[in-house]
Amino acid sequence: MLNLIEEPIKKTMKKHENLAEMEKQIKIDRISNLPWDVLDTILVRLPLRDAARTSILSSKWRYKWTNLSQFILDDKCIHNFISDKASRWIEIRKIIDQVQSNHSGPIEKFKLAAYCCPNYSDLDQWIRFLIEKGIKELIIQEFSVIKHFKLPDSVFCGPKLSHLELYGCILRLPSSFKGFDCLKILQLSHVLIISDALEHLIRNCPVLEKLTMLNLQNLAYIRIYNPNLKYVKIDSAFEDICLEHSLLLASVDIRMLPKNRGTTLQHPEQGKVCTLIRVFGSLRGINRLSLSNQFLEFLANKDVPERLPTPFKQPLGP
């Protein structure tokens, strides 16, 4: 008789124990216990504002978002009702301060794409911080330019940089600059740089594949010497151009804007040979060529011969 009573009791107790174990498993925060590289992979796919909102989940999550490997600061990070450019930068600065105070580990990518009016000393300090963190992709896109800011020399000591986009800065190469060994993509927009510095920069990026130059200022001529280049786009004012030993170039897009000055620089190469041949005569792998504006007139400043060199006999793409 006792066994008949104990058996149902044992079954009931076992059932409750199983339920308790299930409840315990449900209460475990499995996401918080994921490895950081997995969490980072998840969070960097969210807009930064949404990633920052995870700070309210628990004390464990309070500063997780500040340790991301990628930060994209765009209009989604700023409240819609904030339209003043200086105020928008204040909002961005709040994010930067949080990251600088709490971040540990590397930062691989940073992108600034919010139309604002930055405090240049803040921006300078932030760029230095990113270089110390081993940044690989540094992208500074269009913002409200009041004056050009001096790019800190520390940028040129970033050994891991593979993608660099700069906007609205003064670019002066320090004497200690040895080159960017890992840089594959370079875009300069509204950048103030002299011709010799630009040539030296391009020469010393041995794996550079894509080069874009938009509205560069203070240029006299452009000389591109890089045997690894595959894509070049130029939309800027200049007086002369030379493409040397760029045998892998497959796509060239050049739009020549008028110079503000009335005089034209006579570069040493000018006048020696037909400009069309001088500029493009050494290129053998072109499959896309787009030329517009004053550049067509520039190419025709000397008589074009009846027979073009061998590289030009290859068919051009559409």
Describe the sheet with the most strands: 9 strands, parallel
β-strand percent reads 15-25%
Structure annotation, total helices: 8
Order of helices and strands: HHHEHEHEEEEEHEEEEEHEH
Could you state the oligomeric state of the chains shown? single chain
The poorly predicted ranges are 262-269, 313-318
Mass-distribution shape: elongated
Please report the total strand number as a whole number.
13
Averaging pLDDT over every residue, what do you get?
82
Q: What's the gyration radius in Å?
A: 29 Å
Across the major sheet, the strand order is 1-2-3-5-7-8-10-12-13
Structural class: alpha/beta
Tell me roughly what share of residues is in helical segments.
25-40%
Distance between the termini: 95 Å
